[in-house]
Write a structure and sequence with these properties.
The structure holds two protein chains of two kinds. Chain A is mainly alpha-helical. In chain A, 87% of the residues lie in helices and 0% in strands. Chain A is built from two helices and no strands. Chain B has a two-stranded parallel ribbon with strand order 1-2. Chain B starts with a helix and ends with a helix. In chain B, helix 1 crosses helix 6, helix 3 runs parallel beside helix 5 and helix 4 packs antiparallel against helix 5. Chain B has one domain. By secondary structure, chain B is mainly alpha-helical. The chains are: A mainly alpha, B mainly alpha. Chains A and B meet through helix 2 of A and helix 1 and helix 6 of B.
Chain lengths: 52, 230
């Protein structure tokens, strides 16, 4: 347990914080990206309805 | 979309650099930050706290610009853009106050003790908070948009004073205060070139993120208004 990546992370906990924040950022990014996509789809649908 | 990839990579880099790059007394390689007296490890807040305050200023500025544009052409879409910017500005102003408050507990010893910087953001929150009360109190769309535009112009006149002037000419603890000879104005902050570069990259990344959020917000406001009209 003392050696290797696990031991290194145990002694340098700031990198664990870094990975957690990175995961949070990935989640936020994917969420905003999906919201953007959905909004664009709604916009297109509204345009279609307004045309005829 | 190239800018989304740029945003993703920039923010990822800023998070890695801002959290994991070590602070050492004598920086010798490009990834080491200098020690700032009195702040030490807590100086890293600059990569995440300052951008939120910066975004609040940008958002309130955009609220004013779109308010002026509404007054000129009476297009309700401009009001939606102004309103979206106001909402995001409020969010980021609150985030700046909260992150600063947590940092203050461990740097100054109390979550809140009316430092000039804390007082000024509190007054700003009050000023812009009352704008939301104003908006929700008026049912007529045109009247609401007109009053909110005028209010956002007048409110923004106070922002440069409260964010940039008052906390710098008054004696206080926040880095950049009048008697703070170790740090100077926020942007000089005794950072080395690399720390400054990552700080500016962080500002750019947060600004792109803000712009994206703002676009989604105002589009959804316009769509919901269109649906209500039918």
């Amino acid at each position: 347990m003392e050696n290797g990546l696990f031991g290194f992370l145990e002694n340098n906990s700031i990198y664990i914080v870094m990975f957690i924040v990175l995961v949070v950022w990935f989640g936020i990014f994917i969420f905003v990206q999906n919201t953007d996509k959905r909004l664009k789809a709604i916009e297109k649908e509204l345009e279609k309805k307004n045309q005829p | 979309m190239v800018w989304k990839i740029i945003l993703f990579l920039l923010m990822t880099f800023v998070i890695i650099a801002g959290i994991a790059f070590p602070i050492v007394p004598q920086p010798s390689s490009w990834y080491e930050f200098p020690v700032i007296p009195g702040l030490e490890e807590k100086a890293k807040i600059i990569f995440f706290h300052v951008p939120t305050a910066w975004l609040a200023v940008i958002a309130f500025l955009m609220a004013m610009i779109y308010g002026i544009r509404y007054l000129r052409n009476k297009n309700l879409d401009e009001d939606a853009k102004s309103s979206a910017a106001l909402q995001l500005g409020m969010v980021f102003a609150i985030l700046a106050a909260i992150t600063g408050s947590i940092w203050a507990k461990f740097t100054w010893g109390a979550f809140w003790h009316w430092d000039p910087r804390e007082t000024s953001i509190f007054i700003l929150l009050l000023i812009y908070g009352s704008l939301f009360a104003l908006r929700s109190a008026i049912e007529n769309e045109d009247k609401r948009a007109r009053l909110s535009a005028v209010y956002s112009i007048i409110a923004f006149l106070t922002v440069p004073f409260f964010i940039f002037i008052m906390p710098r000419i008054m004696v206080g603890l926040h880095p950049g205060s009048a008697n703070d000879d170790t740090s100077g104005p926020i942007v000089d902050f005794k950072m080395n070139a690399n720390m400054q570069l990552i700080f500016y990259l962080s500002l750019i990344a947060f600004t792109i993120l803000y712009w994206w959020m703002w676009k989604i917000r105002y589009k959804s406001i316009i769509i919901s208004e269109n649906i209500v009209k039918k």
